[in-house]
Amino acid sequence: MDFYIVDAFTDKPFGGNTAGVVLYNNCDEELMQKVASELKFSETAFIKQLSADTFYIRYFTPNSEIALCGHATIASFHVLKYLNLVHNNKIYILKTNSEFLSVEIQNDNIFMETSIPKSGVCLENASITALAKAMGIENHDIGDLDFYLKPEIISTGLYDIMLPVKTSHILNSMKPDFKALEHLSKILEVVGVHAFTINSSEYTANCRNFAPLYLINEECATGTSNASLTYYLYKNNVIKDFNRKYIFRQGEAMNRPSNILTKLIVSNNIQILVGGTASIISKGQLLL
């Protein structure tokens, strides 16, 4: 089986978020999990081509399978483009274990459709206090300076807590208690926390993402989480424009800066596209 190591949401090697990408014809779930555990990237994608325009992708963290992963999808379609299996200015079908989504190649950018946005609960006082303690911040650090934002659980494929903080200094100085955050994530039934500040003149938001429940203490680019954040900001009247690019900056705290692009579009329901560029840094074969 051919495999690739790809940095997604960056156009330069050694930036963005790294994913393993494996192309296969026959590979069972047990072997996929063993390969993902061996490669140790936050996610490894396993691609099987079903037809000229349809690709089945399964996503594995080092310890479990998940339904969808934005950066691993961008990495996967970058590899497919490298192999001339997909082409510019065309739309392809992504089959996951739970749904079919579209992926559009727009020159250097790859945009994937995310799942229909779903709102979970807005956190109440006790949960907010537990969240602040787990994140190593104070209750009064949570929120923003203009829009009265509050923590809320949102999904565009995976449920995360959207956690607004008031300044970049608060965001950058976070030192979470990962055991406490893992416990809270189990209780609230979320993947993790997507912390952000809109106190930025250059980007729509600056972000950090934490998912210790899935053995990912911090992740430098999370496509589905930023799609969820796009919906959250739309719900709260922070952003309003459709069919324009929003830019989210993530990974600076890990010295792996990432630019994640999103778009709001309207069909029957509000839909979020998430995308960006990628860079292949290695390729090889799994001798299995």
Rg computed from alpha carbons, rounded to a whole number of angstroms? 18 Å
Q: CATH homologous superfamily name of the largest domain?
A: Diaminopimelate Epimerase, Chain A, domain 1
What is the global morphology? Answer: globular
Describe the sheet with the most strands: 18 strands, mixed
Determine the mean pLDDT.
95
Structure, explained:
- By secondary structure, the chain is α+β, with helices and mostly antiparallel strands.
- It folds into 2 domains: 2-115 and 276-285, Diaminopimelate Epimerase, Chain A, domain 1; 118-253, Roll (Diaminopimelate Epimerase, Chain A, domain 1), CATH 3.10.310.
- It has helices at residues 29-39, 70-82, 125-135, 168-173, 178-188, 223-235, and strands at residues 2-8, 17-23, 44-51, 54-60, 65-66, 91-95, 100-106, 109-113, 118-122, 152-155, 159-164, 192-197, 205-211, 216-219, 246-250, 258-266, 270-276, 278-285.
- The chain has an 18-stranded mixed β-sheet that branches.
- Helix 3 packs antiparallel against helix 5 (178-188).
- It is globular and about 50 Å long.
- The termini are close together.
- The model has no long low-confidence stretch (mean pLDDT 95).
- This is PhzF family phenazine biosynthesis protein.
- Pfam families: PhzC-PhzF.
